[in-house]
Amino acid sequence: MSSKELRVAVVGAGRWAERAHVPGWQRDSRVEVAAIVDTNAEAAASVAKEFGVERVVTDYRELLDDPTIDVIDVATGNEAHFQVSWDSLEAGKHVLCEKPVHRDARQTAAAAQLAASKGLKTKLGFTFRYAPAVMYAKDLIDAGFVGEPYIFNGYEQNSQWIDPSTPLRQAEGAEPGEEKEIAVSSIEGYGAPIIDIMHWWVGRPMTNVVGTMRNFVPVRMLRSTGTMERMNIDDGDMWMCEFDSPVMASIQSSYVTVGNYPGIEARFYGSEGALIVRLVEEFGVCQTIKTATKGSVEFVEREIPQQYFPEGGTSLEPWPLLFYSNLVKNFADEILAGGSENQGDFAQGALVQRTINAFERSARERRWVAFDEVEGA
């Protein structure tokens, strides 16, 4: 029997599991990665061998009745997120799931309610809320650094697919070769993390949204076929948001804007001060935070206190491992503490997905959309 406090099964043996999930969990001395699961037995065995995991499984359901497995980590493709998460919660397992749990906010909310009814903890793969710079900024905001909040600006922008020959996975609802309405892609896959940070920092109920989507590079290489096809997806978005307070916000997401991955930037301005967090891997550094006050308006870079890093962590290491190590450490802390604390959970995921659903409706109907019009609360 393992002496570790938590035993985790990682479902999905793709690149993100290999770069972030498995090494993130293994960085925590309290955690054992007990199994790697993938329908592709060869892929699962390869990742298991790389990280020294003994158990390889091709069907996650084989683990649901195993009382030694505490957490199911869902790192599969989007289409499997909801079912694996739901089945795992039904079986009494804590669940970490990559975003989105479901494209319909109501389904994500239902999963959140199921977890709550069973006293289980959930966590969404909102990787960037766990960046040390973002967590430090949140504490500064809560301590009153910006004063009364006025404006939030959020960006997720990088040039991953500015080259049309870069293989792209077909988005749900996007049919190659047909001139159909734009299917949601960038705002859901890439905008979700900055939407999450916006809600977390602003901390007020959203009331209204308006915005638009664009398909700047319509013909792309389809990953599944290797052929150039018309892909009817949003690869650039701009949105404005209102809350039940004077705060207003803007969100921009794109993967055809020149810049390095992941391309997250969050700015918050208030009556007393302002802060800018950049999560952009540049010149070997993966994050920075700058602040200014009304009495000293030049933005100055701050050192991020070591308490916001995982043990041994620095801003010079690759961001996927650094940020994800904080995410899984936070989840382990919450599970082992046994209290009510559970940030970035499925309820937060439902809020973010509901926001995306509101954005989509606004773009399609070319109007301001009241948040109350969108179900999923």
UniProtKB/TrEMBL annotation:
Gfo/Idh/MocA-like oxidoreductase N-terminal domain: residues covered: 6-123
Domain GFO/IDH/MocA-like oxidoreductase: 135-275
GO molecular function, one term: nucleotide binding
Keyword annotations of the record: Oxidoreductase
InterPro entries in the cross-refs: Gfo/Idh/MocA-like_OxRdtase_N, Gfo/Idh/MocA_oxidrdct_glycsds, GFO_IDH_MocA-like_dom, NAD(P)-bd_dom_sf
UniProt-listed PANTHER family: BCDNA.GH03377
Protein name: Gfo/Idh/MocA family oxidoreductase
Natural source organism: Trebonia kvetii
